Amino acid sequence: MKRSHFLLHLLFILLAFSSFSVLINLISKPKTRPYPSLKNPNSRFLHPPLKVYVADLPRSFNYGLLSDLYSLSGHDNRLGTNPDADRFSSFFYRLFKTYLSVPPYPENPLIKPHAAEYWLLKHLEMNKNPAGGATAVRVRNLDEADVVFVPFFASLSAEMELGWGTKGKFRKKIAEKNGDYRRQREVVDRIKASAAWRRSGGRDHVFVMSDPVAMWHVRSEIAPAILLVEDFGGWYQADMKATVSGDACNSTYIIQHTEASLLKDVIVPYNHLIPRFHISQNQPRHTLLYFKGAKHRHRGGSIREKLWQLLENVPGVKMEEGSLNATGLEEAKRGMRDAEFCLHPAGDTPTSCRLFDAIASLCIPVIVSDQIELPFEGVLDYTEFAVFVSVKNALTPNWLMEHLRGFSEKKKEIFRVNLAGVQSYFEYEGGDAVSQIWEMVYQKLPMIRQGLVADRRKLDDIDRELKPVTCLCT
């Protein structure tokens, strides 16, 4: 009898302790926002797939650029070594490349971040069945299409010219000397002569120009289209030097803000260079703030040098000059995975691949910018996994470090759990980036249709033409 009482008391104590432990875990568990995976059937988009017609361009403007030109181009003058030498020069690649419908994208770290054009086209090649559950499907009939996708690898084309030519030639509109300009010109001429462009004036066309220098010479001609870009750094943010000198209106580095807008265009993520680090792999971090990259940049990136002077000798901070070779990327990977926070100041444009490398590394981004546009805002709330700091505060001595040291361990854990929850949104291969980009394009459809209907009621042909792009200086 006593033994049975003892066992009952013991069982009661164990149950009470277990309930108490569960309660403590519920109270102490970081409260995070459950970002749904786009692959989860329960959170799939609640509308039919976007119907995409792929414009008729020769293969030489997309996959042919990879298999027939890039693979034979040799060494990128900007790099010490060729990261693609083994892939594209191997016996097996050369033997079977004729049979590869989709060749691999370069590992070149100056080209790989701008791979959106490759993955979007590949997605359309693989998804041709409207009932297949994809967010976008390819259709063969133009009359069925919601949008027209232009399959030109504009970023690859531009970076090839920069890597194997010279900046001087890149800026010149001479088809015989500038292969990128020749391709840009031919693409635009073909597209604007098509029935699809004449039907809509280009409003329903989608150009991928993620690299800031993509479509450099013809941007004003495709301004009516939906532009998929990594940021608006080259658009309506004035070149700082030109602004100071009073020549902003004449700067060739500015794309006028009649050409690009969040109303019609889509911000897409860079393709990160550092491999994804899963939260189950996370270890204690020993550095408070980490940065690896170029110390000197142009225009808005001039803040880097000032931050460097403030932070380079501060305990808990690592500021390292960057190099885009295998050694440099390995150092960046180790540095980001060992740091609580990763500094993200502006480069030549407000964003860079570094932000997405930080997210992939579960390193809390510290975004120092007064002017920045980010992918999928509205779907994602960046304040839940990143720290935003104004330029003024960042350049105030001691302010930034005191601010970062003020975050509790619990708050940093919440940031990191939220980072893990959004990593897939920035994964092109095997992740949700492509699906989310197509969803953002889908959201432009009402605006496109409104514009097309408005155009049809304008009887005067002159009214249908786009107003000339002007420099709006304020």
UniProtKB/TrEMBL annotation:
PANTHER family: ARABINOSYLTRANSFERASE-LIKE PROTEIN, EXOSTOSIN HEPARAN SULFATE GLYCOSYLTRANSFERASE -RELATED. It is a single-pass type II membrane protein. The keyword Cytoplasm does not apply. Pfam families: Exostosin_GT47 (PF03016). This is Exostosin family protein. Keywords: Glycosyltransferase, Golgi apparatus, Signal-anchor, Transferase, Transmembrane. Belongs to the glycosyltransferase 47 family. The keyword Transferase applies. GO terms for cellular component: Golgi membrane. It is found in: Golgi apparatus membrane. GO terms for molecular function: glycosyltransferase activity. Its main location: Golgi.
